[in-house]
Amino acid sequence: MDDLAQRKAIARALLAAHDEVVDDRLLGATGAGLRAPGAASPLPFAWPSGLAPRPVAPATTPDPEAPLSAADVLVVTWTAAEHDALADVFTPGIARARWFPYRRNFATHFQALIRNGAPARASGRLGSWYPVQVGQTSVVVFKSELHLNQDGISTGEGTATLPVADLFRQLIDEVRPRVVLSVGTAGAVYGNHELGDVVVTRAARFRLSDEFRNERFNATTYTSDWAIPRTQLAHARTMMKTLEPRLREPAFGPPTARYPFPGGLVQPPANHPDIKLDGTQLPAFQPILTTDYFEFGTSANHLDDQGCAVEMGDAVLGLVCSTMADPPRWAVVRNISDPQINAELPVGAGPLNLQIHWAVWFYEAFGYWTSVSGALATWAIVAGLDGA
After folding, report:
1. Which of 26, 48, 239, 388 is buried most deeply by CB count within 10 Å?
2. How would residue 386 be classed by pLDDT, with cut points 50, 70 and 90?
3. Distance between CA atoms of 203 and 385, rounded to whole angstroms?
4. DSSP element (H, E) containing 311
5. Quick one: pLDDT band at residue 262, thresholds 50, 70, 90?
6. Which residue has better confidence, 263 or 216?
7. 371 phi, psi to nearest 5 deg
8. Helices (H), the chain
9. Which one, of 333, 380, 372, lies nearest residue 243 by Cα?
10. Which residues sit opposite 180 in a β-bridge?
11. Bridge partners of 143?
12. 61 near 351, Cβ under 8 Å?
């Protein structure tokens, strides 16, 4: 398997990891369901008075084929670890298996655009959702089963279907939000960005090298020019500080004692999660980089010259909003789940590629807790809209 094919396979495995197919029978009145693996609920955060996220159960169970309810804010996340964290922060006591399934137009439109083997095909739905209130601001939190990297069916050389774009359009048409936030994990491109840091940006850029490499939107940057509310960022940073014990990296040494490694184990640096906002801690409108395979920043590839972090989907939101006459404001909230990787590590084929090994290991080890950090930053933006 060549490097690009390997990275494509890794991306798909990470996006689908631990995302059990939720049977509708788990959504009964008993409250039974799969528990998020990360933390006991509720997480022990001290919310400002009146601004704690509050799940709002509808009077009757929503029909999976029905449109979503209207809300001020639409928050979309992508992987199982991100879903667990978003549920623990925004719907405490309502684990992800108890979010409502959403299948609107799946059979009549989306299914034909999705490749066999994609997660949405296995689950038979587009996602799951829950209504939430934060102060005076209404929110729909949504976990997508569609992904840029997972679903495409080839339509030509370097072109493919992109059903997640249709999903964004459908969600925005139904929810009619003032603000849309795409939230989740990302790889760091800056050497000084730590595990649990969160980049917040109003820009996204496609960086496509595989199935979408010849699409007209490749290498395009999209922006949303509005002021991110900052009134609750300091409170989010205070709550993020409580996560530091969960973000401790293990001491490092060689894999066997046969290596002549002096001085015993090397102790890791501390991680102090922070929010990096474009226009302040980051250059204004520095974009998130959206790829169609598993890419990560290294100490030599200078991705920080192009963007603030790297992930696999956010620029689709920018693309969709660019086609609308009256688009909602939007932003990307991405937590650093794997730091910039040392470029001196070897990049041999398969398991000998230690750069990929460490990038995947960091995500698997810290994906949930870094995603809690990202969910707190998301809350700060939503809470800052209260009354605005």
Report:
1. 239
2. confident
3. 19
4. strand 309-311
5. confident
6. 216
7. -70, -30
8. 3-16, 80-90, 119-123, 148-151, 163-175, 233-241, 315-322, 354-384
9. 372
10. 74, 330
11. 77, 128
12. no
What is residue 294's predicted lDDT score, i.e. its pLDDT?
79
Please write the tens of the pLDDT for every residue from 10-66.
Answer: 544 554 555 544 333 233 322 223 234 444 445 789 999 999 999 999 999 999 999
What mean pLDDT is predicted for residues 120-141?
96
Cα distance between residue 76 and residue 73, in whole Å: 10
pLDDT per position as a tens digit, 305-337: 999 999 999 999 999 999 999 999 999 999 999
332: helix, strand or coil: strand
Question: What CA–CA distance (Å, rounded) separates 361 from 386?
Answer: 38
**Could you tell me which residues come within 8 angstroms of residue 323 by beta carbon, excluding any fewer than 6 positions away?**
none
pLDDT (tens digit, 9 = 90+) per residue, 172-193?
A: 999 999 999 999 999 999 999 9
CB atoms under 10 Å from CB of 245, counted, come to 7
Beta strand pairing status for 159-160 and 154-156?
A: antiparallel
Q: Helix-strand-coil percent breakdown of the chain, rounded to 5?
A: 30, 20, 50
How far apart (Å, rounded) are the C-alpha atoms in residues 159 and 154?
6
Q: Which amino acid is at 295?
A: E
Calculate mean pLDDT across residues 290-315: 94
Place of tokens 């109003």: 202
Cα 152 to Cα 39, 115, 120, 166, distances in angstroms: 34, 6, 12, 12
Show the tokens assigned to 82: 């991100």
Which residues are bridge partners to 266 per DSSP? 252
Q: Torsions phi, psi of 125, nearest 5?
A: -150, 170
Residues facing residue 181 across a β-bridge: 75, 331
| Residues in the chain, total | 388
Short-list 229, 175, 182, 235, CA closest to 388: 229
Structural tokens at position 102: 């959403």
